[in-house]
Amino acid sequence: MTRTLDLELARKVLADQPFSRLVGARLTAFEEGAATLEFDIRDDLLQQHGTVHGGVLGYAADNALTFAAGSAAGPAVTTAGFAIDFLRPARGEVLRARARVVRAGRTRVVCRCDLSTVDAEGAETLCAVAQGSIAVLEPLPA
Fold this sequence. Notes:
This protein is α+β, with helices and mostly antiparallel strands.
């Protein structure tokens, strides 16, 4: 199994996901144990109250969690489950999902993700938090 996943390969993996292309997601940071996913907030990503749809926030959390896990365990990972708590309506120019590894085990990686919106002046507002369990598809040697 290839355990190395660098920024270039991670961006290729993201670009190969049709839904990620649809929302215009970009991987802006990727390092050992952490990943940041961003995309511009557009009208077609909003719900009827003018805030980012919860499903879009869920997508961002899911992908950021999995990329963070992949930075520690390699590219053969998939989401086993995650929970998200919505803290306030997501309004702004950019949605930023910052995920980090909490613990990397041989077969599971637990990660946390903070989702923030960024306004036109660059100020961030935390709007949701998520925690996920990511399955390692090819267990790493002990």
